[in-house]
Amino acid sequence: MSFVVQFTLLVVVIKHVSGQTCLSNESKDDFDKSRKALTDVQENIGKVLNKLENDNKKTLNMFKETLNTMGQKIKKLDTDFKVLGKDFRKTKWHKYNGHCYYYGSYATDWFTAERKCREIGGYIVKIDDKEENSNIASNRANSGSHHWIGLTDLKEGVWRWSYDQSKAVFTTWYPGHGSKGTSSNCVMLHQGRTDWFDYDCHYKGARYICESNFCF
């Protein structure tokens, strides 16, 4: 029975009782039942209110703990970002068009080059157009060395960039290259030139170029 119904019943009973010179047993029973029902409703409401207060305290404490944890994580990210920035600048990246490029100082195979680029916070270079290719080629500290770039055709004949697996739109092949067969699945920027040639990925005679999407 709802609170409103119980309260209405009590009012009716009280009016009925007040109109009599004495309280009959039947009226007294109705009165007692109504009073008990209202008392039960009061107790239940009290329990609900107490539960809501406790639940709200728990929820509030949970939010406070979450905010505190988030604050600590943000501070750590800020610290890590500053450290990363210092390391990034030490590595001597070359900046161009909002991206940064790093030229590996020693020769290795393509797979090691790809891993080294990831270890320093970038990826083996992806070249999107002629202007970017020319800029990268002109900033090589050692133009007498070949440099690995991030283009492969591990699925023969389909050249994709390892960074995002997108198909190459721009290419600039050295004459006779670009389809040298299953033993030449990785690409190098030709020494002293701006064109590319495909070669054995395990060849350890080329340096490498890394790229990052942000600069400090």
TrEMBL record:
<dbReference type="Pfam" id="PF00059">
    <property type="entry name" value="Lectin_C"/>
</dbReference>
<feature type="signal peptide">
    <location>
        <begin position="1"/>
        <end position="19"/>
    </location>
</feature>
<protein>
    <recommendedName>
        <fullName>C-type lectin domain-containing protein</fullName>
    </recommendedName>
</protein>
<dbReference type="InterPro" id="IPR001304">
    <property type="entry name" value="C-type_lectin-like"/>
</dbReference>
<dbReference type="InterPro" id="IPR016186">
    <property type="entry name" value="C-type_lectin-like/link_sf"/>
</dbReference>
<dbReference type="InterPro" id="IPR016187">
    <property type="entry name" value="CTDL_fold"/>
</dbReference>
<dbReference type="InterPro" id="IPR050111">
    <property type="entry name" value="C-type_lectin/snaclec_domain"/>
</dbReference>
<keyword id="KW-1015">Disulfide bond</keyword>
<keyword id="KW-0732">Signal</keyword>
<dbReference type="InterPro" id="IPR018378">
    <property type="entry name" value="C-type_lectin_CS"/>
</dbReference>
<feature type="domain" description="C-type lectin">
    <location>
        <begin position="96"/>
        <end position="204"/>
    </location>
</feature>
